[in-house]
Design goal:
Layout lengths: L18 E4 L2 E4 L2 E4 L1 H8 L7 H12 L8 H14 L10 H15 L4 E2 L7 E7 L3 E10 L2 E11 L13 H13 L13 H7 L3 E9 L4 E8 L5 E8 L5 H18 L5 E4 L3 H4 L7 H4 E4 L8 H9 L6 H6 L1
Parallel strand pairs: 8-11
Antiparallel strand pairs: 1-2, 2-3, 3-4, 5-6, 6-7, 8-9, 9-10, 10-12
Length: about 325
């Protein structure tokens, strides 16, 4: 610290302790326990009487998610209530939602103790996929017993519910659990990439995708370019209702499928949404999309010009659409 001329505030730093409170949890060298104050606030909550009460409840449950098994699945009734009634006068707290609320209170009263994993310890992941939610738990073995490390749960919306049970867990587990505990490259490991592979990776195929939706239709465009500069252009018309993000998902998925069918081994994907770029999903091609290869001018030409040359149409209305 002295070498880089940095100082610490003694009032905000504590050294040499084995236990303490951190980010709303009581932490020691072996265990992580939720603070009783946070649990007490939820246990003393009355049944919600308005939308604002439901919003407060969802916020408090979110802070306890890591201790709750299948939290998204058990909270679906609250989220649906919040989504369905957008006006105060429309709010209804049904008997079914009340039963789910009481069940959630019972679970919070008996929250488990989590274990802090040590470096290089083997971790076990259990995943469960339902129609509207994906849940997972990270565990470790200690003295022939399986100890809880972390719970994670993700609700599925829109087109996400159409994926098979085998496909649904793929993105949820990777992004939310393992990133918290597993280092990208373990200490001592090294990547020995042959020179031939490095040369091939330097000249990958390139994929540009973009998608959009409107009231009555949705579609996307993609451009696949080989290392020699030859371009393969496709226009997609979707046979289902999709948001802009859904269209971007499907455009990337179709591009990957086409690249695989063409025997492409190394591909650099360029999308205009980081949400899409950090996800991986597969799709049933026959059910949800149709691919039409266009040889003449198409609606996706402005997208192509924007993605490759960063140019917009001269007309303001068309430029706004792009």
């Amino acid at each position: 610290m002295r070498e880089i001329n940095k100082k610490l505030n003694p009032k905000k730093c504590t050294f040499g302790i084995k236990k303490g409170t951190f980010l709303g949890c009581k932490v020691n060298t072996e265990e992580i326990i939720v603070c009783p104050d946070k649990v007490g606030v939820v246990l003393n909550l009355p049944s919600p009487r308005c939308l604002k009460d439901v919003q407060k409840l969802n916020g408090k449950l979110a802070s306890l998610n890591r201790f709750l098994s299948k939290s998204a699945k058990k909270s679906l009734s609250f989220f649906k209530t919040l989504k369905k009634y957008t006006k105060k006068s429309d709010f209804q707290w049904t008997a079914k939602v009340e039963a789910a609320f009481k069940e959630m209170i019972k679970l919070i009263a008996e929250l488990p103790t989590l274990t802090a994993p040590m470096e290089k310890e083997k971790l076990i992941v259990y995943v469960e996929a339902a129609r509207e939610a994906v849940s997972a738990v990270l565990m470790m073995e200690k003295e022939a017993k399986q100890m809880l490390v972390y719970f994670v749960s993700c609700a599925l919306y829109g087109s996400e519910t159409n994926y098979t049970l085998m496909e649904k867990p793929r993105t949820s587990v990777k992004g939310q659990i393992l990133a918290d505990f597993i280092v990208e490259r373990p200490e001592g490991d090294s990547l020995n990439t042959p020179m031939e592979a490095e040369e091939e990776l330097s000249n990958p195929w390139t994929l540009f995708t973009d998608g959009s939706s409107c009231i009555d239709s949705s579609g996307a465009g993609l451009i696949l370019t080989n290392p020699k500069g030859a371009e393969f252009t496709y226009a997609l018309r979707f046979r289902f209702d999709a948001t802009n993000n859904d269209a971007k998902y499907e455009a990337l998925i179709v591009g990957l499928i086409i690249a695989e069918q063409m025997g492409v081994k190394y591909l650099q994907a360029n999308v205009d949404s980081r949400l899409v770029a950090n996800q991986e999903k597969s799709v049933n091609e026959a059910e949800v999309f149709a691919v039409v290869e266009e040889k003449e001018d198409t609606w996706m030409d402005p997208l192509y010009n924007y993605l490759t040359k960063e140019t917009l149409p001269a007309e303001k209305e068309k430029a706004r659409v792009v």
